[in-house]
Amino acid sequence: xxxxxxxxxxxxxxxxxxxxxxxxxxxxxxxxxxxxxxxxxxxxxxxxxxxxxxxxxxxxxxxxxxxxxxxxxxxxxxxxxxxxxxxxxxxxxxxxxxxxxxxxxxxxxxxxxxxxxxxxxxxxxxxxxxxxxxxxxxxxxxxxxxxxxxxxxxxxxxxxxxxxxxxxxxxxxxxxxxxxxxxxxxxxxxxxxxxxxxxxxxxxxxxxxxxxxxxxxxxxxxxxxxxxxxxxxxxxxxxxxxxxxxxxxxxxxxxxxxxxxxxxxxxxxxxxxxxxxxxxxxxxxxxxxxxxxxxxxxxxxxxxxxxxxxxxxxxxxxxxxxxxxxxxxxxxxxxxxxxxxxxxxxxxxxxxxxxxxxxxxxxxxxxxxxxxxxxxxxxxxxxxxxxxxxxxxxxxxxxxxxxxxxx
Length: 407
Fold this sequence. Notes:
Oligomer: single chain
Structural class: alpha/beta
Largest sheet: 8 strands, mixed
Order of helices and strands: EHHEEEEEHEHEHEHEEHEHEHEHHEEHHH
Number of strands: 16
Distance between the termini: 34 Å
Helix content: 40-55%
């Protein structure tokens, strides 16, 4: 099987260039795109990437003209598209460039087209080429379309309204959708053939929890976006409410940085480690005794998304504390310590874990790792996507035959 993947996964070298000039820091977009590409390869699917560098609009990103170029990462070949990185022109030029590049790559016809995200140029290029090549087109829904940002002026707001209309029209005729949360299907693509895929767990090195400095208080680690909506404020307050002795170390970037620094000045049990490289983050996980996901379960973000960090946490073999998210699949629950919402609930759950014998924590962490890699790792998720492609393709063929028989 061969799949054309329209999305935002570029080579590591290209992505580092993006980060050097982009305040938006689109790290999760890049990581998720590549996790899907690698999962498809694990399922013996050839992947042809047609990608756009994930840059925010000029002047918030310093590059105005972005030139496309071929790249190779691991066993995947791809090509980035050219575009003018200015609001309005960005979508028009991405559509034209993606159409040209994808048509050239499609000289060897793919068996399916997968579109990563709700980006209207890619959605409509995918639909047009899918119709021309008579192959199914599937969209991966990761978040709501065209969200407003702090940079938007009145023109940007108006253009985004038009963009949302184009996105909804495209989703209404998709052959299939893959979504991180059921709410995304209900809101954006009701009635379309669908598959839930909360994420793809990375195969990280297992943390050796028995290798700990003697007498050191247990270390609790949070890594991710530093936003109030992610529960960071609740997590800071949980330290003050804790009954057991433990320290909190926070990694990431975001608007809550100043609040975290103030909390660290007041309480020596809190440490702000900032943003680190992926390799440094693996070392940080290895040093942790507990990993925590504090996202408030009643927040709109929790209803329409699934935190990719939760899969990453579980893959380390370190015990994980998480709030009771509405998108949490039932089979995760045996492998997490579920915290009640709010600072007190987080404090109680973390206290419970750090008080457990080390052997209990090690055993539970290793079982959680085996579970997440065995059910949500690259190969099982790749095979699940492959089966969905077959299902959607068969349904599309039946539909086309029925249409051809109509008088």
